[in-house]
Specification:
three-stranded antiparallel sheet; Jelly Rolls; 18% strand; 2 domains; Arc Repressor Mutant, subunit A; alpha+beta; eight-stranded mixed sheet; globular
C-alpha cells in the first residue's frame, strides 16, 4: 500500500485484529504503541519519547551509561539504544523542524535519557485508550495530536521561506531523488549557502534530514503485509533492496523484514491511508 500524503479528506483506518497495538501517524507526529524490537543502536531525526506501559525502560544515549525509568527522552539525530522487558511500549516522535525547540515543555527540551515523569506516563496510557476509541470510526476526524498528548498545541518553528519551501518538497515526497544542488537552485541559493542555511534553520544537515524522512516514510507501508520489501524499497525511493536494508537498519536498528513482522497486528491511523 502507498500513502498519498497530499490527499485530503476524512481519516481512513485499516483495522487489524488487535485493539492494543496502534500507530497514529501525521506529517509531523507519531504515536506508537507496539513492539520495540532488539536493543540495537537507532537514530531518529525526531524528538523521541519512550514510555514503559508495564515496566521501566532502559536507555543508553550516544554510547553512555544505561539509565532506567518509565519515561525516556532522546533528542533528534542522537544514536541510542533502548531495552524493554515487556511486550508493548509507547513511542512518540515529534519532527523538530515543525516546532520551536526552545519553547517545548521542559522534559522534551532538555531531556536526553531517562526522565522522571510518572504523571506523563499515566497520561500516555489514557491517550492510548482515547486513540483506540476515536480510531474505531473511520469517518470521524481524529483528535488533535498535540492537544491530546501534550495538553495544548506545540509552538511552531519559524523557518526561512526558502528552506521552508525545500522542507515542504521533501515532506510531500520523501521518495524524491532530488539532490541538495537541485534544491539550492530551486530557491536561488548557491550550493554552499544553501547547505549552511539549511543546517542553521533545521538543526540537521540536508543529507541527514533527507535520510530520516525517507526512512520515516516506511511507516506508511507497514499496514500492507502483502507488499514485497523490494516494492517498498523502490516505492520509498531507495535504489535497491541492499541500500534500503542498510539505511533502515541505521535509523531503526532493525532489518526491514523484522519491522514488518512486528507490525502484523498493528492498527495504523492517519490522514489519507487507503486500501
Amino acid at each position: 500500500m502507498r500513502v498519498d500524503q497530499d490527499r485530503t479528506g476524512p481519516l481512513v483506518v485499516r483495522r487489524s485484529a488487535s485493539n492494543e497495538r496502534v500507530m497514529w501517524i501525521t506529517p509531523d507526529r507519531v504515536f506508537y504503541v507496539g513492539l520495540l524490537g532488539a536493543p540495537s543502536v537507532r537514530n531518529f531525526g525526531a524528538v523521541s519519547v519512550y514510555v514503559g506501559l508495564d515496566c521501566p525502560v532502559s536507555v543508553s544515549v550516544d554510547g553512555g551509561e544505561w539509565e532506567t525509568s518509565h519515561v525516556a527522552v532522546v533528542q533528534p539525530y542522537t544514536p541510542h539504544q533502548v531495552a524493554y522487558a515487556s511486550r508493548n511500549i509507547a513511542v512518540i516522535h515529534i519532527e523538530p523542524e515543525s516546532v520551536d525547540m526552545a519553547a517545548l515543555p521542559k522534559m522534551l527540551r532538555h531531556g536526553n535519557g531517562a526522565v522522571q515523569a510518572d504523571e506523563f506516563r499515566a497520561h500516555v496510557l489514557r491517550c492510548h485508550q482515547a486513540i483506540i476509541r476515536n480510531g474505531q470510526n473511520a469517518v470521524e476526524p481524529m483528535l488533535d495530536f498535540d492537544t491530546l498528548v501534550f495538553g495544548s498545541p506545540l509552538a511552531s518553528r519559524t523557518v526561512d521561506p526558502r528552506i521552508a519551501q525545500v522542507l515542504d518538497r521533501i515532506r510531500r515526497d520523501p521518495s524524491s531523488q532530488a539532490q541538495a544542488q537541485d534544491c539550492a537552485e530551486q530557491v536561488h541559493l548557491s550550493f554552499s549557502r544553501f547547505l549552511h542555511l539549511f543546517k542553521s534553520e533545521v538543526g540537521a544537515s540536508f543529507r541527514s534530514f533527507r535520510t530520516w524522512k525517507r526512512a520515516r516514510s516506511l511507516l506508511h507501508y507497514v499496514v500492507d503485509q502483502s507488499t514485497t520489501l523490494t516494492d517498498v524499497a523502490l516505492g520509498a525511493g531507495y535504489p535497491d533492496s541492499t541500500h534500503f536494508s542498510h539505511s533502515i537498519r541505521q535509523v531503526y536498528g532493525l532489518k526491514p523484514k523484522d519491522i514488518f513482522a512486528g507490525s502484523r497486528k498493528l492498527r495504523v491511523i492517519g490522514p489519507g491511508l487507503f486500501a
